[in-house]
Amino acid sequence: YSSNVSESLQAPSTVVDINCTDADVSVGGDLTVAIVGTSNYGNLFDFSATSISLKEGMSLDYESVTQYNFRISCSDSVNTSEALIHITVNGVNEHTPEFSNFYKVNNVVHDNLYRFGVSRTRTQNTAVGVVTVSDEDEGVGGTVMLSLVPSDSTFRISMDGSVILLTDLIMSTSISQYNYTITANDGSRTAEADLILDILDGNYHRPVWVEIPQTVEVRERSAINSKVSTLSCSDDDKPGTVNSQITYSITSGDTDSYFRINGTTGEIQITSIINIPADQEGLDYNLVVQCSDNGDPIMSSTGLLHIIIIDVPIGPIANETLVEATVSENATLNTEVARIELSGEVALLDFSQSLARPFSVTFAQNIILIAVAQTDLLDAEMTQTYEFELYVLETLGRNANFTIIIYVDDINDNAPNCPDETQEYHVDITETAGYEVATLMCDDIDTGLNGRVTYSLTSTHEFFGINEDKLVVLKDLNTILTTNHFLIITARDNGRDNVMSSTLYVQIIIDPINSSPPTFINLPNTTMLDESKPIFSTVYTVRATDPDIGSFGEIFIRKTGGDPNGFFGVNLDGKIRLLKSLYSSTSNTFNLSISAEDAALSVTETLYIIIAEVNDFQPECQQSVFYGSIVEEVVSPTVFTNLVSCSDSDIGLSGSLSYLLENGSHSHLVTIDNDGTVTVSGEIDFEEYDVLTFGVVVSDMGDPPRSTSVAVNINVEAVNEFAPQIRNTDLEASVSENSGSGRSVLQLDIEDNDRSSHRDGQFFTSLEGEGHADFRVLSDGTVESAISLDYERQRSYSLTVVVTDRSITPLSSSTVLTIVVVNQNDVPPFFNLDLYVGNVLTTDTVGFQVIESINCMDNEAIPSVAGILQLESQPSFLGLSGSSIVVTETPPQESSLFTFEVVCYDTDLQPLSSRASISVLLSFGDVEITFEDPNPMTSILESTPVLSGNQPSEVLTVVAIANFAIEYNLTDATDTFIIETHTGIVRLKRALDFETTESYSVTIRATHQLNDTIFSTIQAQINVINENDIKPYFEIENTIVSVDEGISVWDYTILCVDGDKDPYGTVEYSILSGNTPELFTITESSGRLTFLGGMTPDYEVEDQYSLVIECTDGQFAAQSNVIVIILPLNEHPPVFTGSLSASILESISVGTKVATLTAVDEDNLPHGSVRYAITSGNEAVKFSLTASTGELFLIRNVDYENVSSYDLTVIATDDGSVGDFVVQSGSATFTVLITDENDNLPRFSQDLYFERHVRTTPIDSVISIIECTDEDSGINGVQTIELSEPSFTFNIQQDASIATVSLAQSFGTNEDLFILQLTCSDGGADSTTATAVLVVTVESDSQAITFSEPFYQFSLMEDTILQDFGQIVAFDNETNAEITYSLSNVTDNTFIIDSQNGFLSLIRMLDFENAEDRSFTFFVEASTPDNSATVLVSISLNNQNDAAPRLSRTIYLGEVRESQAPLTAVFLHDPFMCTDVDDDASDSASVKY
């Protein structure tokens, strides 16, 4: 099955009709149609046994798929048949052409505008600019035609929509700008863009040599970059423009690549050492040099420079060629290492830079200096000796090789290196003095004493010390009170001139033993709660102690029993909270089992909780009004059990309820019990009242009591006691027939003793019996006619009237109604025909029966006498004879038609009548018709107009002969001719066309004017005369064809049509214009275009011909435009020009343009259009190269410290894919150099340094070791560490990135805490600074209150849910009093502390991206009534990856050529740009594509 459908087809329309049938009837008769195989077309189409239709919500797209080919199966579950489906999608023009790549200046794109500059000297038929237009349609509407408005001879646009061409020289000097509108049309849709062409100054002058190149001499082995000569040209074009800008080049002659020329200055230099071969006496080179301007077109002059290489003899320089020297490894830059003095002046030095890396070798006259060039490579630990060869050439031509040996002297420049700066050790609490905790392993790569390492503690510790390289226990650990101990160990070398050190941070964790179980302080105990206690409130706090330390001393409080329904919860800190409302409890006591647990041991006690009752709920009823129902006439009492339903959430007496009646309209009829049971007594009559209403007060028995009032409504249900009755005594009536519908007959009087407002007292009436449908009874009891009564149909009615009430159990009564119909004369007589027809001849005699019988009848029920006939307006020769019409006298001798009437009356006193028409034709006895010309014939020009004056043109006249009036008419050719009825003149009705009909045979009929049975016919011949009345025309008025340049055989036929018949239909062809330069010829008789003999198209001569072709039939002519586009070949690859390097600062922002690369393709457009891409070297995708412009952009940040330069391999490809040509490309290496900046901040190793020392610490003791680093290199990475404010108590000394803070004077007796601000600054031009805080606490030998830790550090994750995160633990060493905790110097509401147990809680969400949330420092005060102490708390926030990266756009647009090779770059209009709001310092902000 196959079909063609439009892509605009709407779902669920049928796509193709199919037919699958099955002869089975029941089993096997159900058919299933499905697609065969794994094609996903099943998602697009719905299948049935008769059709395939487009699925709802789906659509076709010609641009995506043009054909669907698949197989379908039709199955009855056992047997299967298959068919092939072929669906062709026809495209529609649904997209408008779109322009792109508009004019851009200063990175601002001007939408819908193209703007190009054109030199006044630009040559004809060359491209001045490129526009881009596309259309998403394919096939229909996919071909876009472009044109310029207005159209002139200066510029035109190529038909393929890419190139603006200059077609004529710009002669006018007054025009500075041309403005056009570019129109793109795809057949039915149009788009427009503006085009501005700026006319630029012309290039009128060729550069001329100021100094003509001549012969110059160059010495053999001259230094690289030595000057050879300088060329000079001038240009008389306007200064400061590209037309006068000179560029110099060497075009040929440099066969050995020894020379280069500066394109701007014209200076020629040597690129490598020139040695004259031993077998030659000399060398010379003839360089062809050129100076060119940069105008349009480019103009140049050429010259010849003759270079002669002069031989230079070589001789000895000196006898001593070994030089030895020593340099210290800390020598500064440019320190002199060695000096060589020669007898002659030095002309050239040559040595291996890789062997002499740390040193530079320079010369001045006869002195050679060797100096330090790279201090970072002077390292005795890496290299102790450097040796290299030095080649020296004197100006006199003598040369020698020197051996240079330099020894590097070692100094103490390396500090001890400790593999793990931070170390952690676990020690059992049972260890004794002398136990070795660890062996300290730091090494120093210096040699001798410079590399020997010793260890010391920065402050003494009661339990730990240093023995050579061992960390040992000084005192038995069973008396230690805390589990964590922090030691700072200094590792020092024994340098000769200076001592260098490193710092180890050691944490020793005491592993305790569990020797004691916890002990409760306030259990067992009893507490009382009101049942109204709010949930989540604290009802009791359990306290317990444990003398063990560490994890064995940490106590966790748990609930272990006594609360099966979970009314209470216990925090680990001992707080018991109410979790559920006590109102739901069925018990008023709880015996909670509480356990206190340490890491291994536990103890359990009981907390007794008693619940106190509260009357805090008032009675609640299910509704505010309660309803019941009772039937009327019930005599015995009616009981409503639990009619009023209420409850009370309280328990006990507070929840017990009582009920009391309130005064009401019917309270005397009812009583109520304490359980809400209502009793109704007495006789109830619905006719007296239909509802019983009263109120009830519901009260509880609490103290004080609470109550609620409700209403009660008991509906009285009615009983149907009475049937409705008809009270009329006379039920007979009469009515005239024809009185119409709705005529009142009788009024019924009906009553019902039930209440009229109830349905039992309401009724309806109906009629029964023969003819009851002819009457109806209205709601008010009126009996009226339902139709217009007819005595002839029914003369009387006997009907039964039934009256029924509307009760659920209805009652009714009935009686008989008699109605008599009174007759009326209402039926007129009537004829059996409406028209009687007869014929009479003039020769008929008296008594001739013209109409045989006229019948008149009457259908009245009591008939009147009918059939009294009377003629009106009859002719005198006709009359009545009984029921016949006869001739009463001789007819007149004429031909005429007589029309008159006959009237019939009945015999009633008020008679009725009816009428009929009579038509009688009187004719002559002789009826022959003849024609004057029995064979009429005429000829008429096909150009004869339809109208001549104000009436149709006359063709011929026909004359008929008879003795009576005649009418003429045509029986054929009525669409072309008409005939006048009374004259017989035949006239033209529509235009004639010889090419359609050459002659007509027309039948003409003459008919008796009064009797169409009398007629005669003849045939008239009308011939059409041929004329040259049709102009020739081309089937296609505008044609576009293309042909490859260089071919010799080609033809194209254009067809012209002339609708005339010969001899006027033959045409001849010719080329009127557009064949310049002459290339084409056309066959005069067939319209076949071919090349002139030996001619071939040349794209560079003319890329397009607009031929005007004419065809003529000798009188008329037509023209057609044939555009022949010459398609170019792709002959040249793109070649990169200009600079291939650029430098950028490492701080340059993403999105900045780095450079613009330029590649030139010598092909004309379109093959000369170049696109750019990066193929390698773009590590980490730092750069993006715009394919259309060559603009190189930075798309990711660069860092000089990671990569200092990038070598990008770039490729330029042309548009060789236009047509069937191969794409050509050229490549180059573009280098991006990164310039170093001070872009990294100095960083302290930690934001907060905390040190604890005793008050008796000696002067010059090390208080703290501070480290600050900077990731920058060179001067930007040099740090200076100092105190922000001068201090008399402390000194600070710096060594590289380490600063040592020492004690300058003894601690005072009242000085317990020092907070020092530290700064670290780098040495960059724009110096940056980091800050840190050093906190020093001074402790007495014994303190009343101490903490479990010297200071507390906590780490939180950002976005942490509000919670407890740590505990501060303090001890009262004197009175063991209860300690209260509080925060000090806290500036915001971020943290709180539990005053009883020291738990710290976070009370707001923290965000790492908010710099103020990253760290917090404050003090916690622990106090008793007699003493207090403070401890420092430091909290840091860890970053989370809580923000998704975002691309700069939601849609990126790109282009790929269908011929593009794999693994080549895709052109993106905008590069990918992805950012992440997470902090840059974390991996969370690093994005991958």
> What value does the Rg take, in angstroms?
61 Å
Distance between the termini: 48 Å
Number of helices: 0
Which term fits the overall shape? flat
Task: Indicate the proportion of strand residues.
Answer: over 45%
Instruction: Sketch the major β-sheet.
Output: 4 strands, mixed
Structural class by secondary-structure content? mainly beta
Percentage of residues in helical conformation: under 10%
| Average pLDDT, all residues | 84
Count of extended strands: 127
Keywords:
single chain, 1489 residues, mainly beta, four-stranded mixed β-sheet
Protein model, in words:
With 1489 residues, the protein is an all-beta fold. It is 0% helix and 46% strand. It is built from no helices and 127 strands. The strands form 42 sheets. It has a four-stranded mixed beta sheet, with no helix packed on it. A four-stranded mixed beta sheet has the order 11-18-17-14, with no helix packed on it. A four-stranded mixed beta sheet has the order 20-27-26-23, with no helix packed on it. Strand 74 (878-881) and strand 75 form a beta hairpin. It is flat, with a radius of gyration of 61 Å. Residues 1480-1484 have low confidence and may be disordered.
